[in-house]
Amino acid sequence: MPHKASRSINLVDDDDDALSQYSKALDSDDRELEVYAKAVAEFKVTWQKQKKEKERKFMKAANAELDEHVDRKQREVKGIMNDMEETYQEFLLKYATNEDKMREVVVKIVEAQKTLVALSVRKHQETMEAASNLEESQLEGIRQIKQTCQDFEGMTESFMKV
Asked: Is the pTM of this model over 0.70?
């Protein structure tokens, strides 16, 4: 910027020439100020336009980068969800397989219990029949012993009479 002339007013000297020079200096200064003001205004407008353009470009680049980041994270989350779904499906398959195996074991246990109960009932019946047969045999043996004792007593009495 050019150096501004000093603006002091000399009131002691009523010289018209000094006043005239002062007016001219003011007019010249005013014109310079107007030129500077216009230049500053134009610079400000240009600077604001450039600033807005830079901000627009920055925002566009930031939005593009943000969109890319969001897309990448969405793909990442989708991949994780797919992995989770696969893992869950594998779990369900293994769980169902284990449940089927356990059900098969339980069915075999129930069948074995039925067989065991049937065998136990049959064995109990056989034992009861054997006990009944044994009791009848014992009673028959006791009858035979009693008869033998009676016969022996009768023979002993007959020998004693002889």
From this structure: no
Secondary structure (3-state) at 7: coil
Sequence letter at residue 11: L
Place of tokens 């603006």: 7
- pLDDT tens track for 5-57: 444 444 444 455 555 555 555 567 778 888 888 889 898 999 999 999 999 99
Report DSSP state, residue 10.
-
Question: Does residue 5 contact residue 24 with C-beta atoms inside 8 Å?
Answer: no
Q: Are 36 and 2 in contact (CB under 8 A)?
A: no
Structure tokens at 81: 């969800």
Residue whose token pair is 């109990």: 124
For the chain, the distance separating the N- and C-terminal CA atoms, rounded to the nearest angstrom, is: 180
